[in-house]
Design brief:
Order of helices and strands of chain B: HHEHEHEHHEEEHEEEHHEEHHE
Number of strands of chain B: 12
Largest sheet of chain A: 7 strands, antiparallel
Distance between the termini of chain A: 41 Å
Number of strands of chain A: 13
Strand content of chain A: 35-45%
Helix content of chain B: 25-40%
Number of domains of chain A: 2
CATH superfamily of the largest domain in chain A: TM1622-like
Radius of gyration of chain A: 20 Å
CATH topology of the largest domain in chain A: Protein Transport Mog1p, Chain A
Shape of chain A: elongated
Distance between the termini of chain B: 42 Å
CATH topology of chain B: Rossmann fold
Order of helices and strands of chain A: HEEHEEEEHHEEEHEEEEH
Oligomer: heterodimer
Largest interface: A-B, 22 and 26 residues
Number of helices of chain B: 11
Strand order of the largest sheet of chain A: 7-8-9-13-12-11-10
Structural class of chain B: alpha/beta
Helix content of chain A: 25-40%
CATH superfamily of chain B: LarA, N-terminal domain
Largest sheet of chain B: 10 strands, mixed
Number of domains of chain B: 1
Chain lengths: 235, 311
Amino acid sequence: MDGGADVYLLYDFQVLLHQDFKSGQAELTVDIFDMGNVEDAFGMYAAERAPGYNFLDIGIEAYRNEGILDFLQDRYYIKLAGFGPGSDDILEKIARVLSERIAGTRSFPPLLEKIPQDHRVKHSEQFTRKDPLGHPFLSPAYVMSYKQGESESKLLISVAKDPAEAKTKLASLVKYFRESGKCEAAPNLGDDAIQASNTFEGHVIAVAQGRYLIVIVNPANDAAALLKKTMQDLK
Amino acid sequence: MRDCPRRTFLKTMALGGAAMKLGPFAWDALAEASGPALSIAHYRTSPKEPDGISEESQRLTREAIAGIGGMQRFVNRGDTVWVKPNIGWNRRPEQAATTNPDVVSTVVALCYQAGAKHVIVSDNSCNPAVTSFARSGIQEAAQKAGADCFVMDDRKFKSTKLNGKVLPVWDVYADVLGVNKFINIPIAKHHGLCKATLGIKNLMGVVGGERNRFHQDLGNTLVDLAAFFRPNLVVLDGVRVLTANGPTGGNLADVQRRDTVVAGVDQVAVDSFGATLLGLKPQDIGYIVEASNRKLGTMDFESLKPRRAEL
């Protein structure tokens, strides 16, 4: 897959199973990527999806368009492509058969189920292994959008090994904003919480909670509530 | 050179000297140097039906090449021409992972009209070649236009001195080096690794070996190819562009219409304009910057005063 492979390698790609099928004039290719674990499989799947796609209920989640159907299940990212008359009808049938046979988990990574759902932009969640928001110290992180009215914020949850590392990530964020803009304590948001801004990221609020660094970029009016709810959910 | 004014004589000698430094297809560098460097053709409407898109693609290609002086500026009677589209992927034309077959067939037809004896269309596909050639529609379209369109033979890759910055030697498809003219026909696409794949990246399709190694330093490896091959003409397919999940694509939701075809002799300028079709600046793309730094062309495509046509 040429240059497309590097993203898969970033998500710890293990093995690919490829198979071609033919039925009458319809041809089908099936690629099953074993990504090693649910989190990386989700990361790879989410890297290729967009909120506006046509989603289906297969596996953990699926989307389709003319000639393609991709879905996520357990530690696998499955991509089907169909060509020729009748192939589109077969795609969904084959996907469901595969889903049944693959079995395994049909749930998103647990962290996504824990954090606030209200006002979250559906299908905007991503798991970024490398340089979330352009900062290596935030790796790895879950990133998703929240929208209320016209205002859209980004919630980033950087995952650390332990609470000490989460605090180190926060310190790096503070250093970055002090050097590039402004940063000050925000005790109303929590212990060691900060509010910061620069011309590049705009406004940001952040706090370390256990082994997570929680960051909201472009905080809306209810951002404090979102931050506190996220802290609560991640305890 | 009798009755040749001194100024013309000196200019011709200078151009001839420059031609000595150019790549394997530089036979008529003097002809290439005389005429517009860049031509951009755009369709005012965006037809939805296949016949309408086909007609649009053909008209845009003819107009873009006419705007740069016509194919006769590049192809001489008796020439053997290698036409290099992107046939890398097992994808349908509307998925915009491979070059529009109507752009390809129009270029082939124009080559023959200009007097070419033999036109070859081929690519070193990333997906299985037989299905990629068929599914892209390029094999059928090219053959209908009279081209010799074949899947490359692995045995024909030969170690070739590129004298590049990072590629001193690499396997090149031997038949490519035996032709008179080389026309590069990329499609503008997003690329997960280098942000965009355009003309310079498309040159990977005439080399073999472990091409995955190029990814360790795309900024330099691709420019080494560009410096070696220096196509006589680049025709960029921007009718449909792949705006996400490239280079493989597949999802029609990632395809957008730009209804544009560009023809140019400056491969850096063509790629620089191509970047804008994807919402990028040429400075965003490492290999374009490197190619510009190595003086293979200019990122400032506007400085070439491109000829623009609206159809």
